[in-house]
Amino acid sequence: MNFIEWIRQPWPWWVAGPLIGLTVPVLLILGNRSFGVSSSLRHICAACAPMNISFFKYDWKKEVWNLFFAGGILLGGLITALFLSDPNPVVIDPKLASELAGYGVTNTEGLVPKDLFNWENLLTVKGLILIVGGGFLVGFGTRYAGGCTSGHAIMGISNLQLPSLIATCCFMLGGFLFANIVLPLILKL
Amino acid sequence: MCVNRSELDKPIWSNLKFGFAGILFGIILIKSEVISWFRIQEMFRLQSFHMYGVIGSAIVVGIISVFIIKKFKVRSIDGEPIRFETKKFNKGQVFGGLLFGFGWALTGACPGPLFAQIGMGATVIIVTLFSAILGTWVYGYIREKLPH
Questions:
Q1: What is this structure's pTM?
Q2: How many whole angstroms separate alpha carbon A124 and alpha carbon B139?
Q3: What is the crossing angle of helices B92-107 and A162-177, to 10°?
Q4: CA of B68: which chain A residue's CA is closest?
Q5: Chain B nearest C-alpha distance from A47 (Å)
Q6: What does the alpha-carbon distance between residue B11 and residue B1 come to, in Å, rounded to a whole number?
Q7: CB contact (8 A) between residue B53 and residue A79
Q8: Model confidence pLDDT, tens digit, residues A63-119
Q9: 3-state secondary structure of A33
Q10: B72 contacts in A (CB within 8 Å)?
Q11: In A, residues 141-160, which contact B (CB 8 Å cutoff)?
Q12: How would you label A76-95 residue by residue, b for 16+ Cβ within 10 Å and e otherwise?
């Protein structure tokens, strides 16, 4: 097996997790930047539509690094898709697979389920809730919480911040409740 | 709230290094499948250890790194002392945290993965990203009326 074939396989958690953790010191040492992605959404608002809202009146140009970082993530996605993608379907838990099959979600190719997240679905109730509603909650919730998985769960907890631990517990609690109780109802639509 | 804790005023191209860090981060996110909607569903249904392993080991490495930086007063490559943000508790971390959890379960993505999914070619996620930007904007608009 050559290097490219080897690197194309899905990476185990004990490789990926430590690498994600290393992003914290890398950004600090590269220029005193605190790891966090959701702020990029705020900077986009501040740059494009501040509309005299005090929350968006700040010097977003000082934070432009965060947009470079987010743009880099997008480019990283493109590079992976072009050169490093795994041709095999994602291996998913059989219980989850059978539950999803019950909702007509059988295509497990790729990382985003094509049966749910596609342009045709956008105009259905289910698609609107998942694609538009879900996105809205991600943007609103992360800003209300003051950070997301990177800013709170990884950067905040790494710096032993209790508010970040509380926020992370709430992310998980919200996800548990929604994925197990509400999401099945939506997928039945 | 600002995440740039450097006091230096540097030209815009100096940000390219953060773009490069973003590329590596994006590749890691995808190759570890943490941006997979399926992995997120497994996490919230306790059907797989993968996500817990990724987030848990990332936090352990992060804690050790921050400890080392503080202990040895490591400086940035510009020679600045590294500054850390102290976060204050407010109710937003609870209410906002729950709302983000709902969104995470629906989209299977937090903000970083949204960018990575679009890059991978899941073009419809552009709509999700716009919606997330709108959500952020609406939060800013009604912020003073929300409990904090």
A1: 0.95
A2: 26
A3: 40
A4: A25
A5: 11
A6: 22
A7: no
A8: 999 999 999 999 999 999 999 988 887 789 999 999 999 999 998 888 899 999 999
A9: strand
A10: none
A11: 141-146, 148-160
A12: bbbbbbeeebbeeebebbee
Residues in B touching A23 (Cβ below 8 Å): 21, 25
pLDDT tens-digit map of B110-133: 999 999 999 999 999 999 999 999
Per DSSP, helices labelled H in B32-110 are 37-44, 50-71, 92-107
- By the 8 A CB rule, do A132 and B127 touch? yes
What DSSP character marks residue B86?
Answer: P
Instruction: Check CB contact under 8 Å for B99 and A144.
Output: yes
Whether residue A73 lies within 8 A of chain B, CB to CB, comes out as yes
Residue A109 in tokens: 């190719």
Contact residues on chain A for B47, CB-CB shorter than 8 A: 93, 95-96
Q: At what angle do helices B125-142 and B111-119 cross, to 10 degrees?
A: 150
Among residues B102, B114, B107, B124, which one has the least CA distance to residue B29?
B114
Instruction: Provide the 10 A C-beta neighbour count for residue B7.
Output: 9
Are A63 and B2 an interchain contact pair (Cβ–Cβ within 8 Å)?
yes
Q: CB neighbours (10 Å) of residue A15? A: 15
Name residue, tokens 């490789």. A15
Quick: pLDDT tens for A113-150.
999 999 999 999 999 999 999 999 999 999 999 999 99
CB atoms within 10 A of CB B140: 22
In which element (H, E) is residue B90 found? none
- Within 8 A by CB and 6+ apart from A46, the residues are A56, A57, A58, A60
CB within 8 Å of A80: residues ≥ 6 apart: B26, B27, B30, B31, B116, B119, B120
List chain A residues with CB under 8 Å of B68: 25
| Alpha carbon A54 to its chain's center | 27
* Structure-block tokens of residue A180: 């197990």
Shortest CA gap A128–chain B (Å):
10
Proportion of chain B above pLDDT 90, given as a percent: 90
- Single-letter amino acid code for the residue at B3: V
